[in-house]
Amino acid sequence: EVGGFDPTLKRMVDYDLVVKIARETSIRLFPFVGVVYDANEEIGTRISNTESIRWGDVVKNRQFIDWSGINDSLPNREQHRISILLPTKNNVPNTLRCVSHLLRNAVTENVEIVVFDHGGSRPNWISLNLALSDVPGLKVVRSVGDVGPVLATNFAFAESTGHTVVAANPDLVVDGPWVSGIRQGLATSDVAAVQPIVLDRFGLIAAAGSSVIPDSSGSRSFYIDHLIGFPVADAERLVGRELLAPSGPMVGFRANDFAAGQGLNPLLDYGAALADLCWRQDAAGAHHTELISSFSVRLLPSGEAGSESVPVDCVFPADSHQAAVISNPPAAGAKTSSLVDPWAVAGLVAEPIANGVDFAPALLVTSQPRPKAAASPPRLRWAIKTAAPAGPVGASWGDIYFAESLAQALESLGQHAVVDRRESVVRATAVLDDVVVVLRGPDRVAPDPAAYNLIWVISHPDDASTDELRAFDHVFAAGSVWAARMTAQGIPVETLRQATDPNRFKPSTTPSGPGPSLLFIGNSRGIYRPIVKAALDAGLPLAIIGSGWEPFVPKGNIAGDFVPNSEVSGYYSGAGAVLNDHWPDMAREGFLSNRLFDAVAAGARVVSDPVPGLSDVFGNAVTIAESASDLARLFSADGTRNAAAFCSDQELQAASANVRQQHSFQRRAERMLEVVMAGIGPAIQDRHYRPESSTAPDERTSP
Questions:
Q1: What number of CA atoms fall less than 13 Å from residue 537's CA on the CB side?
Q2: 632: which of 2, 5, 160, 574 lies 20 to 30 Å off by Cα?
Q3: C-alpha closest to that of 515 among 397, 639, 632, 642
Q4: Which residues contact 598 (CB under 8 A, 6 or more apart)?
Q5: What is the rounded distance in angstroms from the CA atom of residue 558 to the CA atom of residue 524?
Q6: Rounded Cα distance, 460 and 335, in Å
Q7: 570 by DSSP, 3-state: which?
Q8: Which residues contact 647 (CB under 8 A, 6 or more apart)?
């Protein structure tokens, strides 16, 4: 009646048969030993040492999930619902955090979350069930035995009802509008899967799609993740490109596609199973994976390795976590015409090599060959180091906008630039960087001995020691007084003022924001900042946007705690005047703050404390005030400006145009490139250079 052994199974045929028989009749236990099994794997060739134990999971997937019924009910799934498939085991804190972030960023969306506990302890299961039992749109299911995350995801799919499903890892922290991102990514029929860029706790790439590489024997292929341990900018270049396959830990599929292949392949590890499902959508290769960046995802598992997991020699092994054997490798050339090479987009070459362990391949990553003669500078890899922390906290730091604007300017000059946050200023993949630019703020960053090192002291000059500066190939400083003094002490320092992005900061005909008479945008830094105190002591109607002000100023003066950098220019343009101040050491040493450049570029009148060199750069577009009495002379009680104390509209327009032209990040990037090419010269073309006729990489040489 049940048909005997299943010849399509390479192992566990007995288990499969028993399961099928148990459906038809009860099974009785005989009280004696019927078979003695010898588990010695050294006794000849046998399926127990040639075939995976995971064939048992294949049996479970076939016998315990009604795929036929699932396919029949696909038309009844909720068209606008997204179902999260969340396998977990003894991971209650991270699972609750993951669920919280998913729901927090999908408040008005039709979202369902299926949490599947695959073999967790009873106390953990009780805790999980109690915490989530009353959450609307959430279902908690348990398997007493550990079926693993792959099969648990398939079981969770069987419990889901959404037209779109997202396989997710409970260690994820999702920030931003993830629902719309997933939907938009799957809007076109040729996209089989969609995934966000996932970062580790250091802000480095943890997932950005995967590719297929062969082993050294040529008989098998492996999936291997892209760009693990590299800065996020390398993955952002892949957004909107066609990739072969996704990589976990958050991948979206259409429910129809997920069901068509009976879910994830239980023979594979979780990440490889997600990639394999995407490929199986169309054997001819009509489908691809798309990377999206409309929301941020962080993978924050406790005790897991981050950037230190990447070998220092940039050889990336296809280990059991990042790759798995493909039983039916993609047809050669099936999709190569449309797919992008993720390594080439990052200015790199990834070459499969044998690592001597079970023929499993690894990737040797080097820089792309550079022509020996070229009319323009070669494309170098620049790493810009900042003090801004990883994660959403760092997104509000001015340093990160500063660094990203500089990176964009370098890119416009044909360079390849990435930004490293505080936790990733030292990373294994830095071995491929040609130029390091340290934006010296509150943190000291050591130079890379294998790169050409620039330091740009933009703040806190008192913290930069002479020993630190001497370690760099070239020193820039945003303060003219300090630069001259250090040069006189025998350390050549070139003045390079801070800058603005004229594409973002320019006069606006439609200003945004409250349009107050006086505006200050900035955090309190834990102190009652002098210019803010002076304005309130003078009784002026100051609007403050920033965090940490509650202990210092009346609540009525706080207009908000944050404004996106993309909107700051409109706020500046709409204000009667913008207030600005400096740290004492910056004011003393001639470091003009970045706010001055942005505000004047946006066409705002600025009131600031005095700094040497202020009028040389901004003319009379910036008015000096040091005290409440100074501000009282500049403004009436209702915030109206004393016109005689400020520049005319024509003068302000001229100052704005001058700042945007002479003090842009483009100009700063041009100067840096000049310094690097003069300092290194033709030798830079030999770094990581691999002649086309050679099969072995040249040794990397320092300039």
A1: 13
A2: 574
A3: 639
A4: 500, 505, 568, 569, 572
A5: 11
A6: 52
A7: helix
A8: 605, 619, 620, 621, 655
Sheet holding 416-420, edge to edge: 416-420, 381-385, 435-440, 452-457, 474-477, 494-495
| Element (DSSP H or E) covering residue 364 | strand 361-367
Question: In Å, how far are 40, 46, 319, 553 from 49, measured between CA atoms?
Answer: 9, 6, 20, 72
Q: Are 602 and 472 in contact (CB under 8 A)?
A: no
CB distance 504 to 569 below 8 Å: yes
Residues 346-372: tens digit of each pLDDT: 888 887 776 555 555 677 888 877 665
Instruction: Please tell me the predicted confidence (pLDDT) of residue 340.
Output: 72
Q: Report d(CA 141, CA 583) in Å as an integer.
A: 56
The number of residues making up the chain comes to 703
The pLDDT of residue 551 is above 90: yes
The answer to whether 196 and 277 have CB atoms below 8 angstroms apart is no
User: Taking all residues of the chain, what is their mean pLDDT, rounded to a whole number?
Assistant: 85
User: Sorting pLDDT into bands at 50, 70 and 90, what band is 320?
Assistant: very low
Compute the half-sphere exposure of residue 605: CA atoms within 13 Å on the CB side of its CA: 24
Confidence of residue 545 (pLDDT cuts 50, 70, 90): very high
Tell whether the model's pLDDT for residue 478 goes beyond 70: yes
Q: Starting from the edge strand earliest in sequence, which strands make up the sheet with 221-225, in order? A: 210-214, 221-225, 325-326
Q: Is the separation of the CB atoms in 164 and 285 below 8 Å?
A: no
DSSP 577: E
**Confidence label for 222 from pLDDT (cuts 50, 70 and 90):** confident
Q: Say if residue 136 is exposed, middle or buried (CB neighbours under 10 Å; 0-12, 13-18, 19+).
A: exposed
How sure is the predictor about 112, in pLDDT bands with cuts at 50, 70 and 90?
very high
Burial (CB count within 10 angstroms: exposed 0-12, middle 13-18, buried 19+), residue 2: middle
Classify 167 as helix, strand or coil. Answer: strand
Cβ atoms 377, 416 nearer than 8 A: no
Q: In this predicted model, what pLDDT tens digit does every residue of 429-446 receive, in sequence order?
A: 898 999 999 999 888 999
Residue of 100, 108, 68, 72 lying closest to 84 (CA atoms) = 100
Closest-CA residue to 577 (of 626, 631, 653): 631
